[in-house]
Amino acid sequence: MNHTPSPHMAEAAKSGAGLLCGLGLGPDRVRSPDSLTHTPSPTGGTPSSSPPLLLSPGLGESGDWESREELRLRELEEARARAAQMEKTMRWWSDCTANWREKWSKVRSERNRARDEVRQLRQRLDALTKELTGARRERQELASENETLRQEALRLRADQASPSQAPSAPPSSSSTPSSSSSQPFVDSKQDRVGEGPGSPEQEPVRDVDTEKPDRQKELELLESVLRSKAEGPDSWDARSASSLRSALSRQDRSRLLWDDIAAMEEDPGKITALQLRLDESQKVLLKEREDKHALSKSIEKLETDLNQWKLKYEEQNKTKQEAMKQLNMLKEVHQDELGRMSEDLEDELGARTSMDKKLAELRAEMERLQVENAAEWGRRERLETEKLALERDNKKLRAQTEDLEEQLARKRRQAASALDTDLKTIQTELFERNKELADMRHIHSKVKKQYQDKMAELAHANRRVEQHETEVKKLRLRVEELKKELGQAEDELDEAHNQTRKLQRSLDEQVEQSENLQVQLEHLQSRVTADRRSLLRHRGRKQLEKVKEREGGSGRRLRRQKSPGLFGKMRSARFSPENPDGPPSDPDEEEEELQIQIP
């Protein structure tokens, strides 16, 4: 904040310069006391806070003692300032170490949390691989059971076709192409089943240790930013301390200037010292103005930085909200897909149970058909044996009838010789033989009827066997269709598992991105809080400086009222009752008037 000199202060400075020139002192003879004694200040660039050392040829031993005392006081103040600066640096380092400890503890907790999540994901992966191996084992068992059923059906067909080759030749010939056509399909299914249950592919799990270099880079960047921010408060402290010292030195200089002006009226030999002090005050004023200008620039720069950080913080908040919205949307979509997949799995389990029930029913029906077929084969064999026995009996009866006819013809030929004697016996025998023949004919007709009935039953049994064969073909086709459906269901189940893995990977990536955004947001919040603290400290120091300046101005006004001196007389002459049009007195303007500017 540059103070432009008012017209009243410029007039006072011109009058003071004219007075000094009238006394015979030019501007080239004015020297700064800093050229005589220069001691290093704690800040290095600001003037010392103690009053300047005045050397005049007429002071003597008292001046030497006062200069030594002032040097000791100055060294004491410098030691105090250095001790305060060291305390500030120690506090700052302790705060920095505490902040870094907190940050490292957060990083360790995040690392442990990430490891726990990776461990849980690996456990879930192991459980899923175990379930997958169990499902593939069940699939192998079902395939082996289907193969055994197919072999049993083929064996039954072969057993049925072997005893009845003559009547069942067309169906057996028609069934052979179907069996031959079904053979490659089953072989291909077996090949696919054999290829399926290989070693389960484990999902590649990202290692958390690969992210350590990125985190180390981020931590190094944060260290550099914090160091630059930490250097800022120290420079502000140094500048505020220098401004306080300059204010105190200005008060002391003004007091000494008025004392010297009063002494100059008594002793004209001190004009050279006054010129030196005047030059020193002018240089100090220039330095203070430069410091004020630099402070104003730094304040404006900090305000722009603060606005930029606020904008960045708002942008980070917006990005965080958008990321949270996207994460919630992804979670909802993932939950919906998991619910749909669970429903699909339940439907597949229900379909599998229904298929198992159907297979059990088909097995029971096949066993029943096998039992009935065995019974029919037993009946058929028994009827065939009875038929063969009846044919043998018929042959025997025919042979007997032929023998009897031969005997009858022989007896007829013999009857011509012995008709009288043997006629009755022959007639009786013939009568008996006729009875026997009638009985045999009646028995033959009965046996013939039984044979016809048995042949009808055999034809009916053959028809039923053909019907059973057609049903067995239908069942075989149904079993093949069920095998196809089972393979499709297993393929769909594998696709569902792959989709769940992809969704889990995308969810892990979204969680990692959200954690990185959270860490960046925490770093930005810590930076904003540090900037706010530094601004609050600077404002408090400025307010303290203003209060001290006001108190110093009130003290100087009281001293001026007590001893006006030469400049007091000039001011009284300017602002006397005779000049009522003069401007009202202002403490800041009076202080500026005391600092005489020599062109």
Automatic annotation (TrEMBL):
Pfam families named in the record: Myosin_tail_1 (PF01576)
Transmembrane segment boundaries: none
Coiled-coil annotated residue ranges, if any: 285-421
Record field: compositional bias (Low complexity): 35-59, 160-184, 238-249
InterPro entries, alphabetized: Myosin_tail
Residues of the Myosin tail domain: 336-527
GO cellular component term, pick one: myosin complex
Keyword Coiled coil assigned: yes
Biased composition, class Acidic residues, residue ranges: 586-599
Start-end of Basic and acidic residues biased regions: 203-232, 542-554
Keyword Coiled coil assigned: yes
Keyword annotations: Coiled coil
Segments of this protein annotated with the region Disordered: 1-66, 158-250, 488-509, 527-599
Protein's name in the database: Coiled-coil domain-containing protein 102A
